[in-house]
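Q: How would the structure tokens look for this protein?
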Amino acid sequence: MVLLACLWAADQLTSEWKALLNKETQLLKLWSGVGVFFSANTHPLGSFTSVVLSPRGKAGGGSSDWGFYSVELKSPTRTVAVSGSNDRDEALELAQALSRFLGVDLSVDGGHARPPDARLEAAPLEREQAPPSLPPGSRIRVRQGAQGLVLQLPGCGWRPLFVVKAGIALVIAVGGPAVFGLAWVRTYGLRQLTSAEPLMALAVFLCLGGLLLWSVIREVNRGWSLAASSQGIEHSRTRGGKPGEVTRLPASQIEDIDLREPEEEFFGSLTVVIEHKKGFVRIGAGLSREELEWTETMLRRALATRRAPRDDGDSPLLMRAATRN
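A: Here is the predicted structure in token form.
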């Protein structure tokens, strides 16, 4: 115990760190160790092209002492971790401040590097122009409607997570009754297998496995319905081509639309993330990167579309003029 305590104390002492960014000398200095005097590294600030915020280990792999979210400076040849936090909002604010200070772009969770104060800038999608062509073989459906740009995204398909869940469901529905039946026969004999108790237990296994498999198949086939315009984005999940409950995100609440990598290392999937003031909406899991890039671009351009001038504002004046005549 004493040895473990000494090792823990040594780790705490040597894990201190300090980062200094000097715009006059154009240098980044990183110190670490007891009193931050054990070691120091110097990097030229001009070599960094972007600031990266990512879960620890996704990009350059920040120190575990800085928290789950790592803030890093990235250049074409290296990535240098400078800070981090367990609080994502705190880490994001730090990354944004660092991006503004250096005048470089910001990349969040593996997304595109963009200026921190222009995350939603895009070329407006004009109504008289047809949307760009979809990637070859895409099952996305697109049209221009009264609500703006309307997108229908297909279900996520059999991703690894759902394959595992389906396997568990089959094990419960098939393996459970088989193992239980063999154990019952060995204990009570084959004749007792048709009594009420074992039949009820077998039915429970079948129902549990069947319900889990049904929920997995249902999720695999659920798609997305999106309507985007300058006023905001409406989204809902679809099942059998029919939209469900619609959620509206006003344009004033939307902070970013970007591709994001998941925090899950094994079962996650690249998605389009709509970040708003109350949270996140992840859409398009299971689609190809080209389809996700296209969807992200279309949503950003639809959100930047200029509102069409309304003529009904002049109708009261015309009616009064007609009445006078």
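The CA atoms of residues 12 and 34 lie 9 Å apart.

The first helix runs from residue 2 to 14.

Upvote if useful.
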